[in-house]
Amino acid sequence: MDLRKAGLKATLPRLRILETLGMANVRHMSAEDVYKALLEAGEDVGLATVYRVLTQFEAAGLVIRHNFEGGRAVFELDDREHHDHLVCTGCGRIQEFHDSVIENHQTEIADKYGFTITDHALVIYGECDDCAGR
Amino acid sequence: MDLRKAGLKATLPRLRILETLGMANVRHMSAEDVYKALLEAGEDVGLATVYRVLTQFEAAGLVIRHNFEGGRAVFELDDREHHDHLVCTGCGRIQEFHDSVIENHQTEIADKYGFTITDHALVIYGECDDCAGR
DNA sequence: ATGTATGCAAAACATTTGCACCTGG
DNA sequence: CCAGGTGCAAATGTTTTGCATACAT
After folding, report:
1. What per-residue confidence (pLDDT) applies to B58?
2. How long is the CA A67 to C1' D6 vector, in angstroms?
């Protein structure tokens, strides 16, 4: 939460972007989503700044960038336990989950092939209950 | 392998693109990779056609499109058992693997949250042996 | 023939960068 | 004050699309 602790000046745009990502009802937003939310909130921010700041936040470990299908990256505040994602192809809803058996197996696999894990991305695509009946 | 069976006319560009993806030493290529390979082979093909054809192949289930980190999609011939990927962040090398324990757990997780799996993507990023010592 | 596929060039996106101006500490 | 941050516009890189021509059946 503390920008200074992350080595970043506490400027207005950075604070606002962090706030926006912290809004309980969103969790996963694209750069454009953040930008639009700020404009609607009456903030005068540039899209380029949103991209720059999100990239800095990622480097500082404040947010996680996801490359789900669809061509645009989405960002999420890195303020809770590690988890993976279920993405509904119908409504776009995102469900987080954690499975330690899968996590452990990933480490085993990396070992087996001589890789040192730096990161991993597990995304399950499917249709959620609400979308099943169209 | 059979374009007609997939409902696609057996045109020269399509045959060449399929051949290129089938070259044993590649497996994972971006649209541009395929395009360049064809130009070098003396084929007169357009980049737009490569994109169009790869998208058709994906829809027909002949190839799989991956959105790894890095902004560009890579394609792989869908001619073997399902598998996931280890991607070396150092040299870009891609190692395929399969783990049935992980697969089974994914199904369980989807069930638990009421999702019907249509697809999934597990990518482990890390550094391979060869890159470990820089 | 004839409907579909292709190549080219232009368009559409997502994201990045150059630069003059503004701001936080 | 002054290094670093920001907004804007222009540049980039990837993928898509419109259209006249070429090709497979």
Report:
1. 96
2. 27
